[in-house]
Amino acid sequence: MKILIAEDEFTTRMMVQVCLENWGYRVESVTNGVEAWNALQKKDGPQIAILDWEMPELDGVEVCSRLKEMDVENPTYVILLTSRDSNTDIVRGFDAGADDYMTKPFNDNELRARVRVAERLVRTQFSLAESVGELKEALNQLEMLESGVEICRECRYVFSPYDAEWYSLDDVLNSGVDPRFIVNSCPGCQNK
């Protein structure tokens, strides 16, 4: 699992990175909010992000807000890591889209526990998204199977509801596009 650390303070960034790498995670490390935002927009971007609140160029809360606005199937799990610990700041961080919140200085064991929770949730979310995709595909195929196949009695052309065109039966069978048709040979043709 890939984790992004966005922290402008060198010592904290290195401590978090070393911990994560020792626990077996792939880590990408950046020093400001713009670099974090760019990393999070990549197609193969990190699944988990640990963001400092106060960074140059874009702060962690702004990065969270931008992530929240993205329409993605599997959004990045965000942990804000900050020295801010007032109730107002915590609520503001969660309202911006953070999934979790830790205060500095951080405890290694607490960080590990929170990252493990994030990893479980990311894996569950990915699995659910795959299941939803499979269910949608199955539903589409079921709907196609339930609808009748329209064939012209005279010329034996087949109507395609997808593009509202008529095609010869041979064209339809050879294209393999319509899942309502299962092309096979009858027992009499198989014995020839």
CATH superfamily descriptor of the largest domain? Response regulator
Number of helices: 7
The fraction of residues in strands falls at 15-25%
Ends distance? 56 Å
Return the string of H and E elements.
Answer: EHEHEHEHEHEEHH
Uncertain segments are none
| CATH-derived topology of the largest domain | Rossmann fold
Mean pLDDT: 87
Strand adjacency order, main sheet: 2-1-3-4-5
CATH class of the largest domain: Alpha Beta
Please give the domain count.
2
Q: Give the biggest sheet.
A: 5 strands, parallel
Binned, the helix content reads 40-55%
* Rg measurement, Å: 26 Å
Shape: elongated
Report on the architecture of this protein:
The chain is of the alpha/beta class and 192 residues long. The chain folds into two domains: 2-136, Response regulator (Rossmann fold, 3-Layer(aba) Sandwich); 147-190, no CATH class. It has seven helices and seven strands; from the N terminus they run βαβαβαβαβαββαα. The protein has helices at 10-22, 33-41, 60-69, 87-96, 108-146, 169-175, 187-190; strands at residues 2-6, 26-30, 48-52, 77-82, 100-103, 158-160, 165-167. The strands form two sheets. A five-stranded parallel sheet has the order 2-1-3-4-5, sandwiched between helices. Strands 6-7 form a two-stranded antiparallel sheet. Helix 3 (60-69) links the parallel strand 3 and strand 4. Helix 2 runs parallel beside helix 3 and helix 3 runs parallel beside helix 4 (87-96). The chain is elongated, with a radius of gyration of 26 Å. The N and C termini lie far apart (56 Å). The relative contact order is 0.10. The mean pLDDT is 87.
